[in-house]
Each structure stands twice: as structure tokens, then as C-alpha cells.
Amino acid sequence: MKIFSASKIREADETTISRQGITTGELMERAGTEVFLWLKKRFPDKETVFHVFCGKGNNGGDGLVVARLLHNDNYKVVVDIVEGTGNPSEDFTANFEKLEQNNLACNTNEAYEYKKHKIIFLDAIFGIGLNREVGAEAKEAIQRINNSAVKIISIDVPSGMFMDRKSDIAVHSDMVLTFQFTKLAFYLAGNCNFIKEIKILDIGLDKDFIANEPTQFFLTDRTEAHQRYRPVPAHAHKGTQGHALIIGGSYGKIGAVTLSSKAALKSGCGLVTAYIPKCGYTIVQTAFPEAMVLTGGEEHINTIAFDIEPKAIGIGMGLGQQPETQQAVLEFLKHQKTPMVIDADALNILSYNNEWLNMLPENTILTPHPKELERLMGSWEDDFEKMEKIRAFAKEHKIILVAKDAFTIVACNDRVHINSTGNAGLATGGSGDVLTGIITGLLAQSYSPADAAIFGVYLHGLAADIGVCETSKQAFTASDIINYLGAAYLKIEAEKAQK
Ligand SMILES: NC(=O)C1=CN([C@@H]2O[C@H](COP(=O)(O)OP(=O)(O)OC[C@H]3O[C@@H](n4cnc5c(N)ncnc54)[C@H](OP(=O)(O)O)[C@@H]3O)[C@@H](O)[C@H]2O)[C@@H](O)CC1
Ligand SMILES: Nc1ncnc2c1ncn2[C@@H]1O[C@H](COP(=O)(O)OP(=O)(O)O)[C@@H](O)[C@H]1O
Ligand SMILES: [K+]
């Protein structure tokens, strides 16, 4: 799904208004109606009290439409217009007048019975139009909302959240009902406390505009994943499904390479060879009989040489950073032409030898976690700068950068893809090793590097989303990601069949 900036969203509005021959007020009515219908379905109990907090811009206008529709549908509605939220917009004013005509008064300070489970706070103070720091009065309203113990639903965006810079204070939403497009700011690490869940409401913006307008930001949702997924051909055999080579491991860290190798095989490739130091030989052969094993070095890898011809290579998991290993890795990378995923210690070795980055074959995939990312490209001031640096780094070195996080970012070909799957169950040792294995396995199956990275990250998160429902987040382990890969593939198959 495309992600547009606030100014592009305004353009989408204008195009829709002109092509569909409607007014801005009619578009607002449509947006408010979608919110109303969603609320009515989710909260059918007419004893539910909706307390709506409105600013005076168009986000507040949406809030007023929703308030009126709920009121006319016999819900109990309380409306507060928050001062210090700018000059009233035309459509806000029009809807404010309609509210009066419908006998719904605002700012009545009316005490209502506090029944925790029946009160919903609707946050419509600011939307995508926030253009300066929040002033005292709006801040007070935001704090009041946040200090309540009730369910908070934001219209379009959590009020106070900037779309293009760091936000200090914003509503902590349980649910954001956002219009037509998701927003980039929703996925940034610094905003993680402001949103629990996102629901995108279709408000019928112009389809041609959405299809044709370029953007550099995408959400890897179901549709994007399905487009990249490649089923196993009926006449496949192990030779056509690709051979993955996983290089890593050192004394005490053979598990990392075992996990990676298993994940590569379970992602669907035909053959897997693990290249490890000798101390891991029995471990890998026993724990993972499907793998072939090659060795170099005793307790750590000191040379990388083999006479097989893998279709893809994953390197770095549990590798260690002994001087001999560092030398072996650099020598190895110098001569590589095979599609490759570079992770963990191989990334650290590269970050001490930055000039080597330019020697990597084009579209090599790098999979740093936040600390490794910082070692590679330096630190950042905030998430927006981080995003720009990631994009510039991938472009400069002609690589694919998989910046792992709660919402992992894949930067390639000057585009940024934000993943939508995964959960905190993945915050467990070894889950990154599994990801590298999956992406290497997909590369071996002839996925393009961009598709392998984007789809691999999605698949990894999906396996975790399915898995934690059965294991809990606490008890979920990296091995469970591998165990649930099959369920993730089956889910994708089933979804595709439904369409
Ligand atoms: N396609 C769609 O998505 C559709 C979107 N729609 C809705 O429109 C929303 C965008 O509306 P918007 O442009 O009026 O801006 P909004 O978010 O209400 O806030 C800006 C207002 O607050 C003010 N203001 C700003 N910063 C401030 C501050 N720090 N402190 C105080 N005031 C501040 C600013 O006033 P000013 O700068 O003029 O003083 C302005 O009046 C969008 O999120 C969605 O809900 C639907 O109705 C239709 C379809
Ligand atoms: N809270 C979270 N939500 C979603 N994904 C997460 C979360 N925490 C971690 N992950 C994912 O788990 C993986 C962790 O990778 P990494 O830190 O390299 O682990 P390890 O080094 O232990 O293998 C990444 O793919 C990351 O995106
Ligand atoms: K809002």
C-alpha cells in the first residue's frame, strides 16, 4: 500500500472533490460517516457514551460529524470544543451549526455517569494539519485524554502527532481510524506509545490518483506480500528450488548458524549447506540432519573456501570477530558475485572497514538491528533523519538495507518499504538469525533481492503473529518462528485463494 505525505493527501482530496463533483463538506460527511459506521458496528450497545474532543480545523469538523450521527442514532454524546486549536475552518463552522440544529450542545460540562467499559473518548483535536508545537490549552486536553482510564479512539491521527517531524506530546490512542492511507509517522519507533492499533477507512478518494501518483514509501501489507509470493512450481525438484549456503558460527554460538540454516530450508529452498568451524560439526549434523556441513577453522572460521555453487549466501550469524575471521570474511566478500545476505558479525566487520561496502555486489542485502545500523551509518537525531539516512545509505552503496525494528524498514531502489507484521514475541535471541536464513532461502529460490527482503521480513513477522496466539509472546522463541513458517505460508495461500 502506498504511503503519502500530508501534502499529497491534500492533493488526493482536491482531485477527488473535482473529479467526483462534490464539496469539501460532502467529503467530510463521508469521512465522518465511515467513522460512525465503524463505531456503531464495534459498539452496538446504545448505552455507550461517546465523549468527543474537537479542535477547530477539519479534524475537529470530522469529530462534529461523528458526534451528530451518533447522537441521532440515540447514543449518548458529549462534545467538547478545545480552545487554542486555531481559527475555525469553514467546514468546522458548518458542522458546528448543524450540531446546534440537531439539539446537541457543546462544552456543557455535564457530569455523566462514569462506567469505565461504556465510555469512549473520541479524539478529533488535530489531524494531519498540525503545523506547530501544541499550545497550553490543547496540551491540557491531550493530557486529560491520556490520563483517563477509558478507551481512546483517534480520528485520522493521534492528536499532537506531527506527520513530518518528532512529536513530543500526543494522544495515546488505543485505535486510530485513519482515512484512506496509513501514515508514515505511525510506524516510527519514537511514536510507538501513541498507537496500539490502526484501522484504515476507505473514504472513496480518487482511485486513479492513488494508482498513478508516485511515492517513495510503501507499507508491506497483505496485497504487497501476495504480489511477491511465489508458490512452489508443480514440477520443482531440489535442484530447481535452489541451494543456500549459510556461513557463520563460532565456539558457543553454533546455535545461530543452526537456526539460520533451518530457516533457509523451511523457507522452501532445495538444499542447505552450513559452513562452520569444526567445533560445530557434530552439533549441526545432529540438530539439523537435512543440512550438509563444510568446515573451516577449529573454534572460529579462519578461511572461507568451498567448491559448491550456491545460489545464495547468508553470512555472519554467530561468526565472532577474531582477527583471522575478519580477514577471512573480507577476502571472501572481495570475490563474491553470488546474491548475498550479510548479518550480525559480518556487518560489524564491514562497519570497521567501511570502504569495503562499495565492493559488495549490487543489491547485496544487509540486515542490521538498530545498534548494528548505527555502527554502519552513524547515529541519527530522530526517526525522520534515520529514515533519510537509511535511504541515502542504501542508494549510495547500491545495496538493500533491512533496518530491523518493531516495524522493519527495507530500503531499496530509492524506495522504503515498512513491514506490517511481527510483534514483541520476536524480541528474543536468535530471531534475527532466523530472518537471515529466511531471506537467504528465498534468494536461493530465485526471488529477486528486493522481493526476498520485503517478503522475507513479512513472512518472518507473520509466522510470529500466528505463533504467539498459541505460545504467548513470553514463551515464543526463535525456533518457534521456524516452526510456524508453514502456517504462515498456508495463511498466504488461503488468502490468495479467497480473492
Ligand atoms: N482525505 C482525508 O484524509 C480527509 C481529511 N479530513 C480531515 O481533515 C484533517 C486535516 O484538516 P486540517 O488541514 O484542517 O488540519 P487539522 O488536522 O484539523 O489541524 C489543523 C488545525 O489546527 C490549527 N493548528 C495546527 N497546529 C496547531 C497548533 N499547534 N496549535 C493550535 N492550532 C493548530 C490549524 O489552524 P491555523 O494554522 O490556521 O491556525 C488548523 O485549523 C484530516 O486529518 C482529517 O481529519 C476529512 O475531513 C476529509 C477527508
Ligand atoms: N517488538 C517487536 N516487534 C516486531 N518485531 C520485532 C520486535 N522486536 C524484535 N523484532 C524482530 O526480531 C528480529 C531481531 O533481530 P536481532 O536483534 O538481529 O536478533 P538476534 O541477534 O538475536 O538474532 C528482527 O527481525 C526484528 O525486526
Ligand atoms: K485526531
UniProtKB/TrEMBL annotation:
Domain YjeF N-terminal: 9-211
Cross-referenced Pfam families: Carb_kinase, YjeF_N
The record's free-text note on cofactor binding: Binds 1 potassium ion per subunit.
EC number: 4.2.1.136, 5.1.99.6
Role summary: Catalyzes the epimerization of the S- and R-forms of NAD(P)HX, a damaged form of NAD(P)H that is a result of enzymatic or heat-dependent hydration. This is a prerequisite for the S-specific NAD(P)H-hydrate dehydratase to allow the repair of both epimers of NAD(P)HX. Catalyzes the dehydration of the S-form of NAD(P)HX at the expense of ADP, which is converted to AMP. Together with NAD(P)HX epimerase, which catalyzes the epimerization of the S- and R-forms, the enzyme allows the repair of both epimers of NAD(P)HX, a damaged form of NAD(P)H that is a result of enzymatic or heat-dependent hydration.
Residues involved in K(+) binding: N59, D123, S159
The keyword Isomerase appears for this protein: yes
Keywords of the record: ATP-binding, Isomerase, Lyase, Metal-binding, Multifunctional enzyme, NAD, NADP, Nucleotide-binding, Potassium
The family this protein is said to belong to: Belongs to the NnrD/CARKD family. In the N-terminal section; belongs to the NnrE/AIBP family.
Self-association state and partner proteins as the record states: Homotetramer.
YjeF C-terminal domain residues: 221-492
Catalytic activity: (6S)-NADPHX + ADP = AMP + phosphate + NADPH + H(+); (6R)-NADHX = (6S)-NADHX; (6R)-NADPHX = (6S)-NADPHX; (6S)-NADHX + ADP = AMP + phosphate + NADH + H(+)
Residues the record lists as binding AMP: K404, D405, A406, F407, T408, G432
Listed name of the protein: Bifunctional NAD(P)H-hydrate repair enzyme
Protein origin, superkingdom: Bacteria
